[in-house]
Amino acid sequence: MYLIVGLGNPGDKYEKTRHNVGFQTIDLLSDEYSISVDRSKFKSLMGKGRIEGEEVVLLKPLTYMNLSGEAVREAVNFYKLPPENIIVICDDIDIPFGTIRVKQKGSAGTHNGLKSIVKEIKTEQFPRIKIAVGQKPVYMDLAAFVLSNFSKEEERILRMEIKDAKDAAATIVRENIQDTMSRFNGIKHEIDPPR
């Protein structure tokens, strides 16, 4: 069994923000694999189903980003999952826009949702799929940036990134983390140059 966690903030006002790409990826997985994510459990919305024959739980924590680890800990303890079967999908401001980055493990960096998960489950040894959301302008506060919406042009690229993240999560479940990293870490979607 795999736990696939998409990070984000609950509520309509956050729905299309940079911080909510994890939620958007869970929605895409939910649609593609017909897994309803509508049960309230583990301080989250969750759904249980199968991806490529493997049992999965899709999770959207409702704790707000900075407390995401509380929801993840409850689910991990309930299902008694090893870290390598926990896949976390989140936004990333450091990787180039148009890309995703699949990692086997690693530090939380500046991401408060990842920090909360590491603190609560007491390990960094879980796979994560990071979705590029653009780099923060110098004049802008980090919190304001990640809670801002995408431009129309950015949204076009983002849709491709989220599809890649969805496919990467399914590939981890179906195959393994190494093949997933090889396949997805080199993909780059470009914003069309102005004409």
Describe this structure in words.
By secondary structure, the chain is an alpha/beta fold. The protein has one domain (2-184): Rossmann fold. It has 6 helices and 7 strands. It has helices at 21-32, 68-79, 112-121, 142-146, 152-174, 177-184; strands at 2-6, 39-41, 44-51, 54-61, 86-92, 100-103, 128-132. The chain has a 7-stranded mixed beta sheet, with helices on both faces. The longest helix is centred in the last third of the chain and has 23 residues, at 152-174. It is globular and about 45 Å long. The termini are far apart.
Overall body shape:
globular
> In which order are the strands of the major sheet placed?
2-3-4-1-5-7-6
Give the uncertain stretches in residue-range form.
none
Radius of gyration: 16 Å
Order of helices and strands, N to C? EHEEEHEEHEHHH
The overall number of domains is: 1
Overall residue-averaged pLDDT value: 94
Number of helices: 6
Distance between the termini: 49 Å
Assigned CATH superfamily: Peptidyl-tRNA hydrolase
- Estimated share of beta-strand residues: 15-25%
CATH architecture: 3-Layer(aba) Sandwich
